[in-house]
Amino acid sequence: MENKFPYTWYLKNGYPAKAVDHHRSTVFSCFAGGGGSSMGYKLAGYDVLGYNEIDPRMAQLYDVNHNPEYSYITPIQKLKKSKKLPSELYNLDILDGSPPCSTFSLAASAVRDKYWGKKKKFREGQVEQVLDTLFFDFIDLTAKLQPKIVVSENVQGITFGTAMTYGTNYVRDIHIAFDKAGYNSQHFILDASKMGVPQKRIRIFFIALRKDFDKFNSKFNLFETRPELELNFNFPKITFSEIDEGTKVKREKIGPKSARSYISKGTPRGRWQTEKQSNRGKVGTVGFGYTVVNNLVPNTMTGAGRTSYLNKSHNYVSNNELSKIASFPLDYNFESKKSRSLQYVMGMSVPPVMMAQISYHLFTMD
What is residue 251's DSSP assignment? Predict the structure, then answer.
């Protein structure tokens, strides 16, 4: 399998990638953030018509980098009730969406019961919403717009659940909701590190095909047979040593204390994380920093990171290196040079190359 989408790229070079035809299939993105998935679609030859996002700050980044035709900075509950949507949105090839996932985060499993079904204020600070119902609001919008295909991403934790209750039922409820909306759906657990992205980022993707859309075999029973659609990626893994620029980066400060803090309880300040600790899954998942090790694939970049540094090579990860880990373009305008600001945007986004691989596969399937 040829990898058509390198993780080092620039917005200024335009879309799509040279190895991909600009086929102009249309996409609209919900919960768009800074546009990670949108960049992936564009790399794969799609036209992204616009987006929906609740956070004005993230929407501003999207506008600066994408210049969309349509933008809706509003809760999806209002968008799905709108009677003034343009005709183009009723003729989409793909409706894309990544509902906020903190309720399903594996790191938050201990408090999942506490927040399930209750309103929570986004970090974006705009509106209180019940996070675990947003996926169904998205499917309501699907039923209204009737795109040919729906692509939705979320954390792997959506398949688990406190006391083995929420996760399994929730995933099944999503499939049932898609069925009622007129779609056959399937989900896939995919790892970005096998898709040409230098980051071990495991996510679940729901792919829903409108039942009257016959590009794929849509005549199947969701719970008894398997559809024709398959997503298998096995590109070589990319370790940090391949993207290490060897630069010396001055560490950032957060308030009166250094941004370089404890990795976990009992770890002395300033002590580097070891490769053995990394293999236990601790690197990049706890503490205030995002630690990487030269001969390992970087772990999942989260939006909660405060600063970034690595083991035994140089003090801190540069902004260029962060962008490569997330497969963001090196000339993306974050409107900030602080690594914690970059990491928030990228940690909240689908890696563009990950989405490019999926959407290109969807378009080229026979």
Answer: P
Over residues 97-109, the pLDDT tens digits come to 999 865 555 444 4
pLDDT at 257: 40
Tokens describing residue 198: 């230098």
pLDDT at site 357 = 97
pTM, entire model? 0.84
Low-confidence ranges of the chain (pLDDT < 50): 106-111, 116, 124-125, 162-167, 219-226, 254-288
- Give the orientation angle of helix 339-347 with respect to helix 319-326, to 10 degrees: 0
Answer left, alpha or beta for residue 72, where phi above 0 means left and psi between -120 and 50 means alpha. beta
pLDDT at 277: 40
Task: Provide the 10 A C-beta neighbour count for residue 216.
Answer: 20
Q: Which pLDDT does position 339 carry in this prediction? A: 82
Q: What is the token pair recorded at 284?
A: 């990049």
Counting every residue written for the chain, the total comes to 366
- DSSP-derived 3-state class of residue 154: strand
User: Which pLDDT does position 121 carry in this prediction?
Assistant: 56
What structural domains does the chain harbor? 11-237+350-364 (3.40.50.150)
Distance of CA 188 to the CA centre of its chain: 14
pLDDT (0 to 100) of residue 315:
59
Q: What's the rounded Cα separation, in Å, for the pair 330 and 168?
A: 39
The answer to whether residues 118 and 64 touch, using CB atoms and an 8 Å cutoff, is no
- What does the block give as tokens for 162? 């406190």
The per-residue b/e assignment along 91-118, b for 16 or more CB within 10 angstroms, e otherwise, is ebbbbbbbbbbbbbbeebeeebeeebee
Told to judge if 101 belongs to the known catalytic residues of this protein, a careful annotator would answer: yes
Q: How many helices (H) and strands (E) does the chain have?
A: 10, 13
CA-CA distances (angstroms) from residue 231 to 191, 203, 262, 365?
11, 13, 39, 10
E runs forming strands in 5-102 = 26-30, 47-52, 70-72, 94-97
Which member of 101, 171, 190, 356 is catalytic? 101
CA separation for the pair 242, 150 (Å, rounded): 34
